[in-house]
Every structure is written in structure tokens, then in C-alpha cells.
Amino acid sequence: MRIVGMVFGAMIMLSIVGGANFYVARRLYQWLNLLLPQMNAKIFIGIYIFLAVAMILGLLPIPAAVRSITGWIGGVFYGFFIYLLMFTLAADLVVLLGSIARIVPSPIPHIVLFCKGLIVVLLSFGIGSYGLYNANQIKHVSYEVQPREAALGDVRIVLISDLHLGATINEGNLAKVVQGVNDMAPDIVCIVGDIFNGDFNAIRDPAKASELLRSIDATYGVYACFGNHDGGRTFAQMIGFLEDSNVSLLNDEYAVIDGRLALFGRLDASPIGGSGGLERRDISGVIASIGADMPVIVMEHNPSRINEYGKEVDLVLSGHSHRGQVFPGSLMTNAIFTVDYGHYQKDADSPHVIVTSGAGTWGPPLRVGTNNEIVSIVWKEPR
């Protein structure tokens, strides 16, 4: 029954995506035909179909270099497609209302159709191009959090997430991310999941990526938990890569930092492809046994799980949401999660929560209305 439901859901999704593509492609062809009357329709259809399915081609068992190129092309296309669809719908609505109000003549003049298409293309291309540029930038964000009890002292925690190594743009940005982390002079570095993009073999240069991670300079080391994309058939290789990179992976385990701070890393609740037989467990008893005199920080990839933690935890670090990554995605993540970005504390007896928008992208290699970021958190002792 579950498989039938998944197939039915996939068919509905394909129908929606296919219908949206047909609508945009038809409008785009109508506009191009006004601009280039001699344009070959078959060539246009062939190019459009290739762009629309390029992301799927990137999932096929073809050479890694080809997968990388087609995946990037498909990701860029759908990043632009979001805005083509939005602006095409808006333009059609404006023209329809204009026709109803008798502002726009009927039949609609070619000049109106041409200007409508031109505006849609220019806006979509402009915003999409900005998104491509912005996805190559790394912003620095800072928070200051005070513990409720215990003499921890000032500690600088640098938080990153959602590197999605294996996606072309993210792997290229890793050097900038590492440099940004080191510039913050961290005591502890926390990587809160989605380190990989679902397939370790998609990383073009694992040795270089590992070398970059080893170059992170943190007083008490680099720690990580896995996210939903850190699973599947290459799970063991992912673990080996982190070991080689001097990154301490915590799968429902904790480490005591300098005898004064417990750092807990959670296993993701819904790993794509599984976590090599590991299962997420109830750790409330383990956290309680740590003792009230030692602050506890939890690395939990998905912020939808923050309600699992109470006064026994001081700080929860999350990612996953990307803050929607591409507007209007931020409106959806804001509606889905209690907190999809930034600092949050439900009440005085609840832990502080910090959710980062991530240091990389997933799917479309664009950032519109959001940023790739590195987060600095000063765990500041009250004076």
C-alpha cells in the first residue's frame, strides 16, 4: 500500500511539473515566434525538453563528469523556471484583467504580447542571474548567547551546515567556507548535517575536499552530525571521509569538550537511503545523566525536532531549511517550521535554538532572498 501511495504521489507531482513546463514553454515559444518568426519549432521543443529533464539525467548511471554537467544545467534551469512561471502567471493575469476592464483590446495586439513576454524574460533572467551570483558568496552572521547556569566561560562556536559536497558549486565554494571559518578563530566548529549531496562518489576531488577540512583550525576540534542527505549506499565512505578529514562524527553520541561542555550529535530521523543500519534512539536519559552542572549543546540537523529538548539542553544547533533558498521558498519554510532561521527561544526553561540557512545549495544552485552563511556564536559567560 505504501509503494502504491508513493507511485501515485510521484505521478501527481510529475503531472503538475509537466503541466507547468508545458504552460511556460508554450508562452515562451509564442513570444520567441514574435521575435524570430522563422524559428524552428522542433529545435525549440528539443532544447526545452533537454533542459527540463537535465536534472533527471544527472541521476542516471552515466560518467560522473556528464552527471555533474547535466545536473548543474538542470538545477540552473529550474532555478530560472521558478521565476518564469511566477512572472508568466502574473503577466497573463494582468492582461486578462486588462481585457475584462476593456483596457487591453481584443484580440490582444501583438505588441502587447511581445512586451508581456519581454518583461517576463528580462525579470526572470535578471533575478536568476543574481541568484547564481549570490550563491557564490559567503556571508558571516554572529549571535551571542548566555548560558542559564554553570561556569562555562566564553566560548566561540562556529556553525556551518548543508555543504552538500558533490554539487558543483558547493564543492568549489568549500575553500571559501573553510577560510571564513578560520577567520572567526573558533574554539569549536560544528557541522550540522547534509555534508554530502546524497552520493559520496559525486565529489569530484575527495582528496582536496578532505585536505580543506583538515585545515580548519579550531581549539577543541571539528564535530559533525549527519543530515537527511548523508545516507544511502555510500554511507560507509562518508564516514571514512570524515575520519580522514579530522572531523569527529557524533551519531547519537556526545563528546565532552575541555571537561566543561557536552556536545551531542543526533542521527537524522529520515536519512535518504538509510544510515547503514543505524537507528535514531531516545537519548533523553543519556543527556540527563550528564549532570546539571555541565552545559549541553545538541547538533540536530532538522529544526522540526527542536521540541524534543527541554531544560536539560542549553543550545540546539540546526540547519536543513536553507531558509527556503530561493524566494518564495522562504515563505514556505517559515510556515512549516517553528523556526526556519535565526535565533529562537520558546521560553526561559527552553533551550536556545540557532538555525542556519546553510553554507551551500541543494537543487538549483541559486540563492534569492537568502544567503550562504557561516555562523559565529559566542557562548558568553554573564559578568
Give an overview in words.
By secondary structure, this protein is α/β, with parallel strands linked by helices. It folds into 2 domains: 2-134, no CATH class; 140-379, 4-Layer Sandwich (Purple Acid Phosphatase, chain A, domain 2). Helix content is 43%, strand content 15%. It has 9 helices and 12 strands. It has helices at 2-35, 41-57, 64-100, 110-134, 168-183, 206-214, 235-244, 284-290, 329-336; strands spanning 138-145, 155-160, 188-192, 222-225, 247-249, 253-257, 261-265, 296-299, 315-318, 342-344, 352-355, 372-379. The strands form 2 sheets. Strands 1-12-2-3-4-5 form a 6-stranded mixed sheet. α1 (2-35) crosses α3, α2 (41-57) packs across α3 (64-100) and α3 packs across α4. The longest helix has 37 residues, at 64-100. It is elongated.
**Please, what is the average pLDDT?**
90
Class computed from helices, strands and strand pairing: alpha/beta
Helix content: 40-55%
Gap from first CA to last CA: 60 Å
The oligomeric state is single chain
Largest sheet: 6 strands, mixed
Q: Count the E strands.
A: 12
CATH C-level name of the largest domain: Alpha Beta
Number of contiguous helices: 9
At CATH level 3, the topology of the largest domain is Purple Acid Phosphatase, chain A, domain 2
CATH superfamily of the largest domain: Metallo-dependent phosphatases
Radius of gyration: 24 Å
What sort of overall outline do the alpha carbons produce when their principal axes are compared?
elongated
Number of structural domains = 2
Low-confidence stretches: none
Strand order of the largest sheet: 1-12-2-3-4-5
- Sketch the topology as an H/E string, one letter per element: HHHHEEHEHEHEEEHEEHEEE
Strand fraction equals 15-25%
CATH architecture of the largest domain: 4-Layer Sandwich
